From TrEMBL:
It comes from Streptomyces lacrimifluminis. It is found in: Cell membrane. Its main location: membrane. Belongs to the binding-protein-dependent transport system permease family. It holds the Pfam family BPD_transp_1. The chain crosses the membrane at residues 16-39, 83-106, 118-140, 166-187, 219-239, 272-294. This is ABC transporter permease.
Length: 307
């Protein structure tokens, strides 16, 4: 092989050499675990007799049996309904606050923008378990300074860790932690809007409110779609907040959310096969909802572009 051919071959193979580490890591830590989970979901453990001795417990083919059991499991379905209610509070409130904060920071008259942006984003940097533990103690009447102030003022002291208020307590943790990230995404999109657009709006006599409603929000619509997409995924995968609050109240069961149900089956009951099937169902539902939302958003953008 000539030197020219060797150099040409080396140039053509260089991209694949750079991609090889990423491909290996993807296969080992993403594709392989997913494949193993799918394999587990299609099997079950068959127990013979008392389940004692060698060969008493065998792994056999179950087909879609684990999936059928998961789809008819009342605990999993109840957890899914609770997550839907939780998401109905978290997503609109969190994205609404993120949009308002981003618009406020993008205003010309706002001072200390860097400090304010950092202060809003900082809760996102706190791990979810730490944030849930922090808020959990603030919810406890015996140690919370808020209940102390309410007691001194003679005002009612609601139990935020019981019944309906529990949804508000959990939603508050998610909103407090996630608003900053979504605000940064939207704010970055706002800063990329050309200044000429604002100058044209000012010459046309548009007020700051009209500029925000008719120019800024429509132009950051892709960022809103992206943040909504991320919020759906995070809501369906809620785990750390209710798990951390569980020792503080009896209102949070071990199967409060679908992922908590997966964890309980896998590590509480030792049934990794059912847990794998449940996790696969959650992943499929997340994929379908996310893909459906993105498909609807893209079709709407195409219709608006055609007009």
């Amino acid at each position: 092989m000539s030197i020219a051919r060797r150099r040409s071959y080396g140039v053509r193979s260089a991209p694949y050499a750079f991609l090889l580490p990423a491909v290996i890591l993807f296969a080992l830590f993403f594709a392989l675990p997913i494949g193993y989970a799918l394999w587990l979901s299609l099997h079950k453990v068959k127990v013979s007799g008392l389940g004692l001795g060698a060969g008493a417990r065998k792994e056999v083919w179950a087909g879609i049996g684990n999936y059928a059991d998961a789809l008819t499991d009342s605990e999993l379905l109840d957890g899914a309904l609770r997550v839907v209610g939780y998401g109905a509070i978290v997503i609109p409130v969190m994205l609404g606050l993120a949009l308002v904060f981003a618009l406020m920071l993008d205003a010309d008259k706002v001072r200390l923008t860097s400090f304010t942006r950092l202060a809003i984003f900082l809760p996102y940097a706190i791990p979810g378990a730490v944030a849930a533990l922090l808020w959990g103690f603030l919810y406890l009447p015996d140690v919370s300074p808020f209940y102390f102030v309410l007691d001194k003022l003679g005002m009612p002291q609601p139990d935020l860790l019981d019944g309906g208020p529990l949804y508000l307590a959990l939603s508050n943790i998610a909103v407090w932690g996630g608003t900053g990230f979504n605000m940064i995404v939207i704010y970055t999109s706002l800063r990329s809007i050309p200044a000429e657009v604002y100058e044209a709006a000012t010459l046309d006599g548009a007020t700051p409110l009209q500029t925000a409603l008719r120019i800024k929000i429509p132009m950051v619509a892709p960022s809103l779609v992206l943040t909504f997409f991320f919020s759906i995924i995070a809501t369906l995968q809620v785990f750390s907040e209710p798990t951390t609050l569980k020792p503080l109240t009896n209102s949070v069961s071990t199967t409060w959310s679908p992922l908590m149900k997966v964890y309980q089956d896998a590590f509480g009951k030792g049934d990794i096969h059912s847990a794998a099937a449940e996790a696969t169902i959650i992943a499929i539902v997340t994929l379908v909802l996310s893909f459906g939302f993105l498909r609807a958003a893209n079709s709407r953008n195409k219709q608006e572009a055609a007009r």
